[in-house]
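hiii so my PI (J.) wants the whole complex modelled not just the main chain, which honestly fair. so below is everything: three entries, each one labled with what it is. i double checked the lines twice but i was tired so who knows lol
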Amino acid sequence: MDAIYWPSFFFLLFSFIACAFALGVLLAKNIVRMAFYLVLSLSSTAGLFFLAGADFVGAMQLMIYVGGTLVLLIFGVMLTSQERFIEMRTSSGEWVVAFFIGLMLFFTLGKAAFGVAAWSGLDRETAEAVQVEQTVTPLAMGLLGARVDKLDEPDAAKQEGMAGYLFQFEIVSVHLLVVLVGAAYLARAKRKASGASAGGS
Amino acid sequence: MNPIIANLLTEPVGVSHYVVVGAFMFTCGVLCMATKRNALGILMGIEMVLNGANLNFIAFGSRYLRNDANSLGLDGQLISLFVIVLAAAEAAVALAIVLNFYNNTGSIDVDGADQLRG
Amino acid sequence: MAGLINDFLNWLPLGWPVAHDSWLGLLIAGVVHIALILQLVAVSALVFIWLERKISGRIQDRLGPTRVGGKFGWLQTLADGLKLLTKEDLTPDGADKMLFKIAPYVSFCASIAAFIAIPFAGGVYPWIAQHLNTGVFFVLAVMGLEVFGVILAGYSSASKWSLFGAMREAAQVVSYEVPLGMCVVVPVLIAGSLDMVVIGDRQAGLFTNWLVFHDPFTFVTACVYFTCAMASVNRAPFDLAEAESELVAGFHTEYSGLRWSFFFMAEYGSMFAVSILAAILFFGGWHGPVPITSMLGLSGEVGSIGWGLAQAIGLANVLLKGTIGVCVMIWVRWTLPRMRIDQVMTTCLKYCTPIAAAMFLGATLWQYKLPGKNFFGILDLPEAAYEVSEGWQREDASDVGGEDRIADVGANRTHGNNTKGWR
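here's the output for the full assembly
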């Protein structure tokens, strides 16, 4: 029996928590409990990101997804709840159909995941020899359009395609601005049924 | 027993394992979107679907899981950054729509959104 | 660390051999780290609650606690803790029991987890539980999770007061994260790293090297940061979530006993965390105003006694600065009246966010025009600061780039600091 490879152990731990609470989100009836399970699931996914060496993305996941988006969702729950604790009912027929469809989907995806030989993982010596690389500056430079992580790419065809993500970054920035304005416009307080003058603006 | 599962604890995990976890979250998210009647529940399902996809991007780009020329490298992380940011934007818009819907119908049950029915 | 512990265990007459890379050392190292962080938060909460009572007493022309534990009443918090332990743990009938019980732990865990990435002394072997190169970002992200405990508590208590408190908290914290993040970006921009050890060591030497004095913009940024930090940890005048004059006790109305005290430990823990963060980002971190350690020559190699003393002085510096920050928060709490919720949101969205954005732009321009300057542009940046900031970039360049690229970057770097790196 070999010694335990600890990253694998932590992978199993985090993925078990993530999957268990994902199932919890699916099966929970109370919407705030759903949100709470989603928090735990997404946080342990952040743990999986850290394990895969994507520390910046992991922290980003914690900050934006968990700290921002889900707080917003719970805020929405509080603003829209009519009774004290909302219960959601799903009929058992729907559950049966959902179960079979889900099983098929998961089986297909899982089969595909183990179908590629190159995806089955490194051997232990190689994995332990992988250099820890810092991701923050290369990521930031990639967003600015310079791929400092691929300077020694020998393949000319791939050199062409490494122009960075400045354009996409700009699109996302403008998109965020539009979203901000749009959300503020949609969610603004409207006076109800107090004549035509209050309707439009 | 499948050798991949047998030495799960003693050997490093690969892209496959991450993809399976991603697939599980994706499936849960899809089912969540399909079975919940609550608009915010559906939104949570969407978040889970996006998160499963993100997990795949990270896995394909990680050097710890697959260290050859075909690895996605930093692109995986960059794409998942975009996904996270866009998911936040999507949640903000969706929340605004849900609030508007609530103002109009007094409930956030999506079955109530049938005014366009012919 | 783990290897050292394993070797030590092997050296002990235990009767079985311990390999150098055994899991036992990792486990012990982890347990030691966790225990140190836990006791730091718990003990600092004890001290701060006592300090709060003393300071508030003095501000209101009273004495504060005087009896328990001697002249200054310094055991008062412990007595309170004992009282809380013996109180009945109530759960309201209408509450969502699971969420109600779990909420205080969520807050507490988030507050403690922030300390994982906070360094207490720098140098080549920093005193830090887990050295992350995205340290600042991680701390901010984890502290943002604390709001979840509060929201869950407020929602699950099935009380209108609690729900109001939780909604205020959600709106407030989500809004204040925006200017807080912008303020944190300014020192990150100047030091050129998200790594808190690098940011701290960039400010070594005299107090003129502190980032708060780097330029006028960072000075204002530090003030905005402190305001937003106070708001994001729910301290008065921003403690709308528990406003006792309107909401009974806000989100923790229904809590009693130990669970209630967990909320308090979380609050004091995150107050301490944001204060230490302020100390590291703006006020020199583990470097005192005068470099005593290097004057005394206390800078031996890692593991020597001189090094240990220097690190201990650094630790004392961080803790002292953090405590001063907490004291300022206490001072503000007992001198300013509580704001209304609309005033809180106005402060955030109409004042703090635009100011922070303007300061960010200003600091960027300043850094562009006067890259090698320090102390409001009067002094030159000391050589040591270049050493710290450029350290990892040189490594990184040799990892990913060819030789010519390094030379290219090096040429850029001769006049200008690392933020101009890859141009």
